[in-house]
Amino acid sequence: MMNEKLLKIVRFVLIVLLVASLIWWINKVGIEQIRANIEQFGIWVPVVLLMLRMVSIVIPALPGTVYSVLAGGLLGFSVGLVVICLADLISCSISFFLSRRYGRKLVQTMVGEKFIDRVDRLSEKHLENNFFLLSGFLMTGFFDFVCYGAGLTKIEWRKFMLALVISILVSNPPIVALGAGVLEGGKMLLGFALLGTFTLAIITGFLRKNQKVDL
After folding, report:
1. Pseudo-torsion of CA 135, 89, 174, 178, nearest 10°?
2. Domain ranges within the chain, ordered by starting residue
3. Of 21, 67, 114, 178, which has the most beta carbons under 10 Å away?
4. Which residue, among 103, 147, 96, 94, has the nearest Cα to 122 in the 3D structure?
5. Which residues have C-beta within 8 Å of that of residue 33, sequence separation ≥ 6?
6. φ and ψ at 42, to 5 degrees?
7. How far apart are alpha carbons 33 and 121 in whole angstroms?
8. Residue 148 neighbours by CB under 8 Å, 6+ apart
């Protein structure tokens, strides 16, 4: 239990440090200069961000939040949101179908022995019988584990995909807006981002308290 709590703290600190370093670097160089340089690479920057985000979801031990912030800062809110939503839709679908097709043994290989208990606890929450509960879990910061956990249940893939799309459309905009708002100085975007992340934090806290799942 102590090691798991320590891992959460380390993960959170790393994300904060990465975001802070990113903000410092962009402010030093200048967002317009960076975006001008990015345009020279054409489609490759969005593709690289999409691939990095996908890998961080399929292999949940890797933090992926920073890529959402990065996408908003470097690509702008609209393009960044499309890239992150597309990455989440593809990678979460892959996680679900891998879990559904190959079962717990493969999931344990993908997430590691330290995290397989979290997947088991999520799969035992009768997600197939409660659409709103499934959608709520998919909006938390550990949605990648939820996808694997849902694949181990008997939930229909159409029901899962609908919950996934809803959760992506609700949970991604605030994080991408955070990157775009902070790095561009957009007060409206930043305000929306803070309100959205606060709402997501409330959802996570509610699920932790009422469903007794260690998120």
Report:
1. 150
2. 2-211
3. 67
4. 147
5. none
6. 60, -130
7. 47
8. 60, 95, 96, 98, 99, 107, 110, 111, 119, 122
pTM comes to 0.72
As given in the structure block, the two tokens for residue 214 are: 């260690």
pLDDT per residue as tens digits for the range 119-165: 777 777 767 777 888 888 888 777 888 888 888 888 888 999 999 99
Q: Which amino acid is at 4?
A: E
Cα atoms in the 13 Å half-sphere on the side-chain side of 98? 21
Torsion, Cα of 114, 119, 120, 124 (10° steps)? 160
Burial bucket for residue 197 (CB in 10 Å: 0-12, 13-18, 19+): middle
DSSP per-residue codes, 111-160: H-TTTHHHHHHHHTT-GGG-HHHHHHHHTSTTHHHHHHHHHTS---HHHH
Residue pair 64/17 in contact (Cβ under 8 Å)? The answer is no
- CA 79 from chain centre, in angstroms, equals 17
Per-residue pLDDT reduced to its tens digit, 21-56: 766 766 676 666 666 666 666 677 788 888 888 887
Under the banding of pLDDT at 50, 70 and 90, the label for residue 109 is confident
